[in-house]
Amino acid sequence: MQTPVIQLAYLASAALFIVGLRRMQSPATARRGNQLAAGGMLVAVLATLFLYDILSPWMMILGLLIGGGIGAVLARQVEMTAMPELVAVFNGFGGLASALVALAEVAQYAGDSAILAPGAELAAGTAFTVVLSVLIGMVTCSGSFVAYGKLSGRLSGNPVAFVGMRTATLGVLGGAVFFGGVFVASAAAAAWLTIPSVVLLSLGALALGILLVVPIGGADMPVVVALLNSYSGLAAAATGFVLGNIALIVSGTLVGAAGFILTVIMCEAMNRSLVNVLTGGFGGEEGAAGAAAEAPEGRTVGETSPDDTAILTSYADQVIIVPGYGLAVAQAQHPLREIAELLEERGVTVKYAIHPVAGRMPGHMNVLLAEANVPYDSLFEMEEINGEFAQTDVALVVGANDVVNPAAREPGNDISGMPILNVDEAQTVVMMKRSLSPGYSGVDNALFYADNTKMLFGDAKESTDAIASELKALGA
Amino acid sequence: MQTPVIQLAYLASAALFIVGLRRMQSPATARRGNQLAAGGMLVAVLATLFLYDILSPWMMILGLLIGGGIGAVLARQVEMTAMPELVAVFNGFGGLASALVALAEVAQYAGDSAILAPGAELAAGTAFTVVLSVLIGMVTCSGSFVAYGKLSGRLSGNPVAFVGMRTATLGVLGGAVFFGGVFVASAAAAAWLTIPSVVLLSLGALALGILLVVPIGGADMPVVVALLNSYSGLAAAATGFVLGNIALIVSGTLVGAAGFILTVIMCEAMNRSLVNVLTGGFGGEEGAAGAAAEAPEGRTVGETSPDDTAILTSYADQVIIVPGYGLAVAQAQHPLREIAELLEERGVTVKYAIHPVAGRMPGHMNVLLAEANVPYDSLFEMEEINGEFAQTDVALVVGANDVVNPAAREPGNDISGMPILNVDEAQTVVMMKRSLSPGYSGVDNALFYADNTKMLFGDAKESTDAIASELKALGA
Amino acid sequence: MQNFIVFVLSAFLGNEILSKVPQTLHTPLMSGANAISGITVVGALVAAGMSGGGWSSWLGFFALVVATINVVGGFLVTDRMLQMFAKKQRPSGGEAEPQGVKAGAK
Amino acid sequence: MQNFIVFVLSAFLGNEILSKVPQTLHTPLMSGANAISGITVVGALVAAGMSGGGWSSWLGFFALVVATINVVGGFLVTDRMLQMFAKKQRPSGGEAEPQGVKAGAK
Ligand SMILES: NC(=O)c1ccc[n+]([C@@H]2O[C@H](COP(=O)([O-])OP(=O)(O)OC[C@H]3O[C@@H](n4cnc5c(N)ncnc54)[C@H](OP(=O)(O)O)[C@@H]3O)[C@@H](O)[C@H]2O)c1
Ligand SMILES: NC(=O)c1ccc[n+]([C@@H]2O[C@H](COP(=O)([O-])OP(=O)(O)OC[C@H]3O[C@@H](n4cnc5c(N)ncnc54)[C@H](OP(=O)(O)O)[C@@H]3O)[C@@H](O)[C@H]2O)c1
Predict the structure, then answer these.
(1) Among the three residues A251, A279, A307, which one is the final residue of a domain in this structure?
(2) A64 and A188, same structural domain?
(3) 3-class DSSP state of B26
(4) Total of domains in chain B
(5) What are the Cα distances from residue A175, in Å, to A65, A201, A213, A372, B192?
(6) CA of B315 to nearest chain C CA: how many angstroms apart?
(7) Which residue among A11, A18, A22 sits closest to C5, beta carbon to beta carbon?
(8) Within this chain, do residues B385 and B321 fall inside the same structural domain, yes or no?
(9) B456 φ, ψ to 5°?
């Protein structure tokens, strides 16, 4: 039973989550905030373990240890660039857990045990929340694992589509809803239908998650992960309704809001609607852009070398570095920071311009650069720095493409209307990338052929290493 | 009974309050926000009138019309300068209403009626919330009316104190708590004690409100009003607990938070602790400062005239206007705006510097200047403009004193540490006030005797009128 | 208990929303919030309208009148103040910078 | 109904708090929020711990393990990320400007 003391403990843990999330509003307090939230979780778990009449506490502790161990290993080992994948995996586990809890509640009702938990008798209202919990939780689970596969490259990043796919998706959705309805009805009237219907509901929801995410291109996965994050929160909240548990309702809803806000922010920054993202087919097709990898007729590409770039930048007054997804792929953040430091020693002002959707996750560049010890106060958001390019000698574009593509200013293409960094206003633009292939949107980039652009072909890590050693040589 | 539909309506009204208050975050949306909040109130009232089984709806509508009529007349007639008073009055009414509702609940329980409302049987928990509601509500009521008296000048603004006052206050508080306890106990055990104890509790609470506010100086009343505003919200929330009414709990708590935040902000801006304000004795003594109204030995005061001020300002590049409480008293905002416009026509840059505690209420100056049609974008907050005084030709201080008093930069006086507007850095300071008496804090102002200060004695309205007509004459 | 949870959440929410109100709007905020505290009018309606007469009925009726003064007066006077804010745009820069809130932006 | 009210208030609160998180911190926010969604571990404890055995017990236990992975892994990885943010202060201006958040401040 939930005694008032337990309820107070849950309220305290919800309050800790709230205070913790509040501290996420500033990098200076964010770490403490995360720790407070973890403390909230501890309070909730301990209160449940010791204040509820848990029948098998050792078993529970074993479960906590196993899960905690696996989680800790995963968290320790992950590369910073693989963050999106890991979040997707955790997310899938969260959704799965919520669905399983609801299923366990049903199993109890179904009478495989003599001891009924409070509320184990399924009223129609509870049955409805069970359906919500299972449906959302299972969709989150399978969807997250597909997203993981695409992000990590284990599944093809291409949007997968087959004839009749949309029909199939609608069919599966219809089926899941139908079995959900049967489940709710059976809870009151036909108990023998309960278990089969909820099993079919679960399977349907799992299939639905796959069908929903598979058609979306790999590059849109971060949006999908944020949305699934929101779902996993909602699944927890739904489970909270099932159990009448305030901690789950409050925290789940907070997470739901967080995921939703991130989704919206990402869509806005890409200037696409959520529907457009989810109905998919956008991006991912890395090979398809091969055609553009040669300079088109009549347009020439200016090339440069690491050595020339080193000299160019070392005589500049101000250099703005524009990092992009390629930086993350190449893991070039450390040599890049070294370049910045060497330039600053020579009296060059170095700033980083962070586009809101640079990379593949919101804030992705910030995490990478923070890992490389780049100080915050040289990072600038788009609106802050866009006016400065005109007074800048060199814009160093490192593995970024869409976020500097002037095509966004013209109508009629996939990135039309997306705000971009005005690197083309700088005196010289140096673009480090491996080829002339377009970025994730697949839109060709006129900047490659601009008079003031110099391409520095090659892997970003190699190029930046070479520039750094040249700068060191210059300095000596 | 509260049907689910009513509860939904209450939730909707709470949501409207939340959304409405959110819109208060920007002047552009604030009016709409206030209207949304009013809409929320309408929803709650209509839901109660038509969905509850109200026995005498016509009577209720009559009550609404009477109250609404009085409120509308008061709201239409008030002068903008009298805003603090009016808020105090309304606040008192709000607190009173909450207490009365709790009392009505008790009267019902006491059995003067055959029809018991749900929850009319007083459980100990409910009885406790009744005590809270009556205590907070009645303190709010009498406290607010004393504050009104002091603000409007009907009561002396001086802090009133008599020997043994603190003891008396503690005694009354103890008595009120005692009768509250008796009430809670009697609700279960000795019904005949219920009514007498709650009546004594009410009277004690009323006396307590008076005793708490009387010793506080008139100039601290705005802080008191904000705090009482917070109380009136808490009283409503307590009544919500009594009635199990979600609309009251949510909205009351929101108001409680609003009042509390405003209180804290005001105290911070004055650099005083809340305890210091509430234990009182500060300010208000207008006459006591008379001693300082003569220039002290060896210090001379530079005087100027409206005509000279007009000429001085019309040849300036930049003029910063610093309005203060005296502007509100003199109602000089309209001629002041005229001066600003005339100067701007002559090519002078005119800015207003708004100190956070200028006037007698937070945002007081903004309301006054808005009333006079001063455009927002010439209003600047302290931190924004403080750096600019050094490049300013004339600082025009209109009825402000404490907020420009350099004594705040030195330790050991009542305003030490309060951030001030650095008018003394301007080339010339013109101070319009009637005498050399100090501002509300009673701290003497060395600025009067500074070399670059010119005093323009007289009522601010008359002085500004004179300057405006001189400027017009100059322009012709 | 549930009511208490609602109370705590509302307090967090109020703190979150209201600490972002700019100083410019503190006076209207104060009077607007004050009007909202008149929500107790709902309680008055219940108290006055549900009882068959006698003391509780009169107490409720009086509470109703007094609370309505608070509500109607509070919203109207707030509206009066905010109306003055709303119309205020420097005619020149008004269009280009639709918010025009200098002193308000922290 | 009460639960629904709590839900609505939490949604408002979440919206209020989270829309103020600067872009810089969106990745840690995402993983931190994700860890919080592992609160379902509490549900798993109840489900697994309250039943006497059989299916519901195993389902609950599996849910417990999986939810704990989410919780522990999520908080740890977020901490790892934020640790990198925390130590980052330009040695020169570090002391004077303790927040030092340029790119973060909107
Ligand atoms: N941040 C988010 O939240 C988010 C979420 C979803 C989608 N997106 C999308 O992601 C895109 C981000 O823009 P972006 O400019 O950062 O990236 P981008 O447009 O995807 O371009 C990245 C570029 O990096 C280059 N690159 C790849 N690997 C490299 C390596 N090892 N060394 C050097 N260069 C390498 C690629 O060119 P080569 O192949 O020629 O080397 C590619 O053109 C936007 O279109 C945005 O809408 C972002
Ligand atoms: N804003 C708030 O929220 C708030 C709340 C509580 C307390 N306070 C306190 O109020 C003070 C506000 O500072 P302040 O500089 O605005 O005001 P102040 O320090 O009170 O000074 C106002 C000055 O105006 C002059 N004055 C009065 N009537 C006048 C008239 N008709 N014509 C011309 N001048 C007139 C007075 O001098 P003469 O008598 O010589 O004319 C007085 O020195 C601060 O100390 C603050 O802490 C503010």
Answers:
(1) A279
(2) no
(3) coil
(4) 3
(5) 38, 8, 18, 50, 65
(6) 23
(7) A11
(8) yes
(9) -120, 90
ipTM of the complex model: 0.79
B211 with B165, same domain? yes
B324 Cα to the center of ligand 2, angstroms: 6
Q: pTM score, two decimals?
A: 0.81
B73 and B96 both lie in a single domain? no
The residue to which tokens 């959900």 are assigned = A180
Spatial separation of the C-alpha atoms in residues B425 and B189, rounded to whole Å: 71
Measured CA to CA, the distance from residue B154 to residue B146 in angstroms comes to 9
Say if residues B51 and B3 touch (Cβ distance below 8 Å). yes
B125 in the same domain as B31: no
Handedness of CA B378, B383, B389, B390 (dihedral sign): negative
Residues A272 and A310 in one domain: no
The secondary element (H helix, E strand) that includes residue B116 is none
Phi and psi at residue A428, to the nearest 5°? -130, 140
Residue A32's H or E segment, with its range, is: helix A27-51
- Of all protein residues, the one whose alpha carbon is nearest to atom 41 of ligand 1 is A434
Is there a single domain that holds both residue B272 and residue B302?
A: no
Chains in contact with chain C (at least 3 beta-carbon pairs closer than 8 A): A, B, D
Ligand 1 neighbours, Cβ below 6 Å, are A 219-220, 222-223, 266, 270, 324-326, 329-330, 357-362, 364, 399-403, 432-435, 437, 439-441, 459-460
Please check whether residue B455 is in contact with residue B303, taking contact to mean a CB–CB distance below 8 angstroms: yes
CATH code for the domain of A322: 3.40.50.1220
Report CA(A262)–ligand 1 centroid distance (Å): 19
Q: Which domain holds residue B147?
A: 84-279
Q: Could you tell me which residues come within 8 angstroms of residue B345 by beta carbon, excluding any fewer than 6 positions away?
A: B475
Give, in degrees to the nearest 5, the angle at Cα D39 between D34 and D42: 160
Q: Which residues of C touch D2 (CB under 8 A)?
A: 2-3, 6
Token code pair at residue A356: 């809101």
* Angle at CA of residue D86, ends D84 and D87, nearest 5°: 75
Q: One digit per residue, pLDDT tens: chain B, 476 residues? A: 577 888 899 999 999 999 999 998 888 889 999 999 999 999 999 988 887 777 778 888 999 999 999 999 999 888 777 778 888 999 999 999 999 999 888 887 666 444 444 444 567 778 888 899 999 999 999 999 999 988 887 877 677 777 777 888 889 999 989 988 888 887 666 567 778 888 899 999 999 999 988 888 776 787 888 899 999 999 999 988 888 888 899 999 999 999 999 888 888 877 778 887 777 655 444 434 444 455 666 678 888 999 999 999 999 999 999 999 889 888 888 999 999 999 999 999 999 999 888 887 777 888 888 878 888 788 898 888 999 999 999 999 999 998 999 988 888 777 777 889 999 999 999 999 998 888 877 788 889 988 899 999 999 999 999 999 999 988 76
Give the DSSP letter of residue A163: T
Rg (CA), chain D: 19
Let me know if residue B155 belongs to a domain. yes
**B-contacting residues of D 10-39, CB under 8 Å?**
12, 16
User: How far is the C-alpha of B411 from the C-alpha of B445, rounded, in Å?
Assistant: 14
Query: Residue A291 domain-assigned?
Result: no
Residues 6+ apart with CB under 8 A from C21: B24, B25, C29
D5·B18 Cβ contact <8 A: no
Residue B120 lies in a domain: yes
Same domain, B256 and B323: no
The values of phi and psi at residue A330, to 5°, are: -80, -10
Residue A32 · residue A48 · CB < 8 Å: no
Of B253, B279, B305, which residue sits at a domain end?
B279
Instruction: Kindly list the distances between the CA atom of residue A136 and the CA atoms of A92, A95, A175, A254, in Å, as whole numbers in the listed order.
Output: 11, 7, 15, 16
Please check whether residue B291 lies inside any domain of the structure.
no
